[in-house]
Amino acid sequence: MYENITYLDNSACTRLDERVLEAMKPYFFDTYAVATSEFGYSMGIEAKEGLEKARENIASKLGANSGEIVFTSGATESSNMALKGVASALRDKKGKHIIVSRIEDFPVLNTAKALERQGFDVTYLDVDPEGKVDPESLGGAIREDTVLVSVQQANQEIGTVQDLAALSKICEEKDVLLHTDATHSFTRLPLDVGKLPVDLVTLSAHTLHGPRGIGGLFIRKGTPPLHKFMDGGFQEENRRAGVENIPGAVGFAEAVKLVTPEETRQLEAMRDRVIGRGLSEIPDVTLNGCRKPRLPQNANLTFHYVEGESITLHLDMKGFAVSTGSACFSRSLEASHVIMGIGGNHERAHGSVRISFGRYNRPEDADAIIDNIKEVVTRLREISPLSKK
């Protein structure tokens, strides 16, 4: 049905790689039992082995030990687990202060707001016009009662990459736990928890051509035990209740394995082509986020004097799928909190378009999308009451 669509919304969700599906199939149809210990029955033991092998492979990519990875249902649960788990574990021991950046994705941002309603004091850290957190500002915001800092590795909407090395060093020096959301950066950007003192990392498979409904949370060994926020069984070493999604975990690990540096470089080339041509060939365009360092798959541009929603609808009729912001944001009529957070106004926010590339895009897609955006924007500006005449 959609074979003629050029899909350029890979930051929202990616197409499943067929090789990932093949890796998952045995755990749907052959080894479909729940994971059991070495004292259980054969099928359950084999299922357990598949689960643990997947855990080892994902941990290895992160520079972690396998016991530091907890499988979850996705990025939203992972970030909820990190923030709520730390908050509950340390509220009576250390304090009730949490710091998050103002442009975090909604799983972090809305979890922080939920904790605020429960009596926690939350500092929403400002960012600069490119979306970067100033390490000195972070250091100044940390207090004696600060239990957790949460700053994403890279922004889901504007692609800005944070200086995690500097931020994690400050948190380590001040003895404060650091959580980072790596949903959009894991495998695409370097992240070695053996070298960076990051304590908790949110992971997800749906942004790297893996299955939906599976994610992970890295919890560094020695981190105070997180309070479970879901009651049930004793799975995941009693850290997360619920029958394990073994096919999902296996698919997640396979998706991680399939990402290559060559592929990432191809994404960067397409990103740079879109940004370069967009800024040089279309008048009144603003790049949202910094030019570099930037997520390799992300280009986000504001086309002034027109609405981003109108652009996406016209592009859809031409066979291109792009978005006006994050997947969580697209159903809201409010201005993007990310664009507003970097000092933009409503006009800039509503005129923004995010183009994000994936494995199944080709270099010619970058030129095709800009050619069509030029045509659409020119036509819309001709009828826009906001456009300069």
Protein model, in words:
It is a single chain. With 389 residues, the protein is α/β, with parallel strands linked by helices. The protein folds into two domains: 6-14 and 260-383, Aspartate Aminotransferase, domain 1, CATH 3.90.1150; 18-258, Aspartate Aminotransferase, domain 2 (3-Layer(aba) Sandwich), CATH 3.40.640.10. It is 40% helix and 13% strand. It has a seven-stranded mixed β-sheet with strand order 2-8-7-6-5-3-4, with helices on both faces. A three-stranded antiparallel β-sheet has the order 9-10-12. The longest helix is centred in the N-terminal third of the chain and has 21 residues, at 42-62. The model has no long low-confidence stretch (mean pLDDT 94).
Q: What would a concise description of this structure say?
A:
This protein has 14 helices and 12 strands.
Lay out the secondary structure.
Blueprint: E1 6-7, H1 18-24, H2 26-29, H3 42-62, E2 69-72, H4 75-90, E3 97-101, H5 106-117, E4 121-125, H6 135-141, E5 146-150, H7 164-173, E6 177-181, E7 200-204, E8 215-219, H8 235-238, H9 246-258, H10 261-281, E9 285-287, E10 298-303, H11 308-317, E11 320-321, H12 337-341, H13 346-350, E12 352-356, H14 363-383
Helix pairs in contact: 1-9, 3-9, 4-5, 10-14, 11-14
